[in-house]
Amino acid sequence: MKEITISPVTRIEGHAGVRIFLNDRGEVDSAHFQVVELRGFEKFLIGAAIEEAPRITPRICGICPSAHHLAAAKATDQIFGVEPPATGKKLRELLNVGQFVHSHALHFFMLAAPDFILGHDCPAESRNVIGLARQSPEIAKKAIAVRKFGQRLTEAVGGKPIHPANALPGGMSAPLTEGKRAELAVMADEALGIAREGWDLARNLLDGVDTEIGAVRTGFVGMTNQGVYSTYDGSAAMLGPDGGRVGSFSGPEYTNFIEEYSEDWSYLKFARFKGGDYYRVGPLARLNIVEKMGTEHADAALAEYRERFGTGTQAALAYHLARYIEFIASCERAVQLLSDPGITAPDIRTPVGAVVNRRGVGIVEAPRGTLIHDYTVNEAGIIERCNLIVATCQNNYAMDRGVEDMARRVVENGALTEAAANRIEMIIRAYDPCISCATHAIGKMPLKIECVRRT
Question: Which residues does the annotation say bind Mg(2+) (predicted)?
């Protein structure tokens, strides 16, 4: 049996590969998305004080640290039995909004756009952000400006532009000053202007593209606050593959609905509904679940999106448009929060005392999808068990099956051209996977030992 390897997959966060197995006729027998990167956070958090979790877990990833920071903080709230005051919650939401602005702008303009603006068969040396900047310098400049706003927002609210530290049990450690609020409000208006202007590009991004490629039929999970799009506060709703509502969860009861498992070709774990149905998370899932975005321009874009894809699309490439609509919504929500006089109020934290609950589960939406932090502690608040379920794990099945679908379409006579390999990578990039967040493996991990004789 012949094997074709794509390594590494480009324009994603982290390291992954694709292995394609051919039969004797040169046809695709099977193909897999393969991750052999391991992060051990769930193990070395054991023995740490629970209040350290919001400080340690942002180091899991430099792209989406705010989501880990906030999921851990929400879990610690439950363990200490406290509810942050209104301003503390607003600041936490604003911190997550900043991450969405930064991450979605990065992926859409710099990682995904070259495939569609320059063409998927453009030479590899030009099919990247540098090539995009050469052909469309204004797009590149505006993308950089919006990302700058996202980072400045993270720094002002979270204390640092990367690996924020201001969220802690009961709320936040530092208020937002009026000076910072005014500065960020101006930047938010500019970012929203860029996002609105860019919709003219985004809405036509998939014109002429077969959106059935990489097809996979799954259910979906995503947070909603009474039907309205939300990334920080609400319950995670579940849709089955037929679009019917399966249930929802907002805490420890997630284990009643979701199970994790492993496959022998990847260290990256998988997740599925109990009962066997697979599901996806992230922008596509969230837009399939919500009734509305809750902001003017994002709702208008959602209406256009649903005219094309309906209310429950399975198309993997539709992730790109869904992500852009979330980008618009995040900019609009930043404008709203930064215009709220209460955002600079000093009441930002509820004092905490002893451990009240031995278990806490924090759930937020990360840019790539639903993020779950589950901690069990002893009476002194020392972590005894930790389980993290990240978006990339929950999308792992869909990426794996999408890779095989595309491989069967583009492998010809046992050969894979560079342009064809990029089409396979495009399916993976649609999910914007964050391999660094793939925090652990379950099951047995293969170990290769080599003995070398020195002479």
Answer: 42, 388, 440
